From TrEMBL:
InterPro entries: AB_hydrolase_1, AB_hydrolase_fold, AB_hydrolase_sf. The keyword Zinc does not apply. The keyword Hydrolase applies. Residues 41-261 form the AB hydrolase-1 domain. One of its GO terms (molecular function) is hydrolase activity. This is Alpha/beta hydrolase fold protein. GO terms for cellular component: membrane. Keywords: Hydrolase.
Amino acid sequence: MPPPETRLFTLRTMAGAPRIELRRIAANPGCGTADAGQAVIVFLHEGLGSVAAWRDFPDRLCAACGLPGLVYSRPGYGRSTPRVPHEHWDARYLHTQALEVLPALLGELGIRRPWLFGHSDGATIALLHAAAFPGAVTGTIVLAPHVFVEQKALDGIARARRAYEAGPLRERLARVQADPDSAFYGWCDAWLAPAFRAWNIEADIAGLRGPLLAVQGEDDEYGTLEQLDRIARSAPHAERLVLPHCGHIPQRDAAQQVIDAARGFIARHRGA
């Protein structure tokens, strides 16, 4: 099956007017739950992700929920404007995406009160955005989120760097990134910088009030369940799902369980 078509959208309200690769998913009226005016599910990819890296998961989730979707590649990823060579993303690069890029994109596309669905770095962006703009989000689902830095994550990223520079990982990323060096070194160098060890967003997300589902695999290679524990301290109302025999990519390792959980979560909180 050929990859779905994407388009480049110029984000005119941002400095430099970056091009954003995006794909819209139409609601499926055949499932019986689609409703005119229902909120869009916005998919926020991981640190090495892109529109293409999601594969068909967004289509499956949107079909199950009867909702439209938006999948996009952040600047530096996919076919979006690449990172400038030698540009270093600082410890607030996820804040920039959550507080500047995402609001600008949603505003220019006319998307109001979306459901946010984020994975890994994208989960962190979702948490930051939902906390900062509580009235602008219907609900938030996060997979393998990061709210503080664990040595396990740094060790995993160091392994990824060795695999990338040895060749195989770069070849795999080239299938979903127009400029794999842009995506990989932007992410890797930010996380492995000494200043990033103190990175922590617990205070930033203390204002989370809307519906929140946090999901993590028991065998996550980049984090422990302490991530979910700390989210619960900041947002005691958060729902929690721990998946056995599942690694850092629940939408791949336990796709149907994630879809079922997300569909139930959205159904419970529609109209909240």
